């Protein structure tokens, strides 16, 4: 297992997140939850985005079994933890009780079908449970790491991911259902997945208006930290200092943007803690 506590300290020094970095793991058997130190069950039905907020703000490690009605949110339960209903044969009355599928978000059943087909899904029936908790605790080895940050933080994080083995990153949106755009998409593709927090995350999860979320594999997370350190050594740091848009940058640009002077500039990670 990686030294998550030290890795999180490096990440915090480089990007200064407001809330805890999270680890997320899916489990084939619900009984595996009992082996995770400090895991707790909420005890009533709730939405997955609420679990994410409890974990990243209160530091809780939360286990859940979506197939046993732990969650209200069908986007989570239909995401591979239980079979999807037969939307075609469903009565109009039953259909009207399924907001994630009907015209709450799209105008027709055909559009609803397209939307549900587009949602990233785990292999149906393979997993019985999931756990989410603060990464620094190292309570379990995560499948995916989740970070909530501002657009400026995300911009630098992407730059860090691209420092070596550059590739143009692509992100997806199914609309309502950001948890699947981030966590499930990353789990399936093994690529970083950034999402715009959805209506549910903001109403129930309390996500701030200036927050985005990025899901990464553990390998990508470590790669991003190495890249952020390299960028930091070149003066590309968070928070990003801003200049006057009315002033010609001229020779002062490099000092303003990168902290670089003719005689050189500090290169140590410790500088950002001052």
Structural class: alpha+beta
For the sheet with most strands, the description reads:
7 strands, mixed
How many helices? The count is 10
Q: How many strand units?
A: 7
Strand residue content: 5-15%
- What Rg do the Cα atoms give? 21 Å
**Uncertain regions: pLDDT < 50 for 5+ in a row?**
262-268
- Rounded to the nearest angstrom, the distance between the terminal CA atoms is 31 Å
Query: What is the 3D form?
Result: globular
SSE order, one letter for each helix or strand: HEEHEHHHEEHHEHEHH
Number of separate domains = 1
| Overall mean pLDDT | 85
The order of strands across the largest sheet is 2-3-4-1-5-7-6
Q: What share of residues is helical?
A: 25-40%
Structure description:
The chain has 274 residues and is α+β, with helices and mostly antiparallel strands. It has one domain. It is 35% helix and 12% strand. It has 10 helices and 7 strands. It has helices spanning 4-15, 48-58, 74-81, 92-95, 109-118, 151-161, 178-189, 199-203, 218-233, 252-258; strands spanning 22-27, 39-40, 61-64, 129-134, 144-149, 193-195, 212-216. A 7-stranded mixed beta sheet has the order 2-3-4-1-5-7-6. Helix 1 (4-15) crosses helix 9 (218-233) and helix 6 packs across helix 9.
Task: Tell me briefly what this model is.
The chain has 274 residues and is an alpha+beta fold.
Output the keywords:
alpha+beta; 274 residues; 7-stranded mixed β-sheet; globular; 10 helices
